[in-house]
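Tutorial, part two.
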Amino acid sequence: MKKTLITTALLALLGGTAPMALAQADHSAHHGGASAPSEADARLADGTVKKLDKPAGKLTIAHGPLESLGMPAMTMVFRAAQPGLLDQVKVGDKIRFSVERVGGVLTVTSLETVQ
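Running the prediction step on this input gives:
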């Protein structure tokens, strides 16, 4: 009898939370995934352009922590994913950028200047 009561109580608890979880997931999907902007922001790092090497397709950035890669703040050289990225900035510009490992090389995949 006691075992049946515990099983019934567990099923009632689980049955009561499943609809709430589904409703929350449906609510987030309805609003276009409200967490998407914060996830995108988490992938962007703040930095300052220290050097541009257009012939080599590289730029040196003094940056804050790269959370997506688990790296602390430092100054380092990155490859640009496309040569046009280097035309968007000049030495001294404050930027927000995303970086990924491409073929084992840290590569800036997007950037934007910050005022």
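The two ends are 70 Å apart (CA to CA). In part three we will examine how such features are distributed along the chain.
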